Prior knowledge:
Elements: E1 5-8, E2 12-18, E3 27-32, H1 35-44, E4 60-67, H2 72-83, H3 105-116, E5 128-131, E6 151-154, E7 157-160, E8 174-175, E9 182-183, E10 189-191, E11 200-202, H4 203-210, E12 220-222, E13 229-231, H5 232-239, H6 262-265
Parallel strand pairs: 1-7, 5-6
Antiparallel strand pairs: 2-3, 2-4, 4-5, 8-9, 10-11, 12-13
Amino acid sequence: MDEPEVVEDFYGVYLLYCINPKYKGRTYIGYTRDPNRRIMQHNRGTWAGGAHRTNNKGPWKMVMIIHGFPNNISALRFEWAWQNPNTTVRLKHLNLKKIPRKETEFKFKLRVLSEMLRVGPWFRLPLIIRWLEDDYKEEFLPERKPPAHMVLCQGTVKSKNLKRIVISNTIVTEECLLCSNYILSGQSKLTCLNANCELLAHVTCLADIFLSPGEYVPIEGNCPFCNTKLKWGDLIRKMKGCSQNSEECPQEEEEEEGSCNEFQELKLVDNPSWFLDCNDDL
Length: 282
């Protein structure tokens, strides 16, 4: 069996499929920072931290997970919209409903996902669509494929979350090479992924170079110093402390996860970032 891919700073939204003959075909959508622990909780029951909707209906299989979200708010908003496609303003105009006798609940959830990945704000995020179970894998229709910058892959995954960075009060005298102003303590700074490049810049200064008029979150661009093609998501992950070698990355204490409503989400920001969905409504 292949070793699971280790992913740092993990925020994921998953799709469960019930294989219990009595409830076979039922699905469940949830959020997690640790997919391996979460599926065990669902199959053990509410006493172990599983959800009421999955309790005593297992076994369940986690067949797919979407990860690469910048923080828990972004992931929880995605989870809520996937669960409620006819309520979220992003998808309401599509009037998405399961086609009776022609579409299973599972296929309907995948169709909703294909629409979500192509609308804002999610279509600009550096998401990874990962199939965890080969037997359930389905291809996206040509007209509903995710944006080119998103990654489609398969295989197991293991989360490795980062320790929170304690911001020092020490005055930092590094200079942004794009605006020539100092990068003060508490301000976010970016460096190029090319180890030989001297780029050092405010996150907002480099974003201004990468952004096109009317856009709020960059997707990719060329380094103004070495011309290396850079994905914005990779730059942000490096800024947050994700190493190229996952074994070098420190661990964080595990957190509880589960579904939250819109108001609960606003209390759960544990990793603010540039990607905070630009305050877009659901």
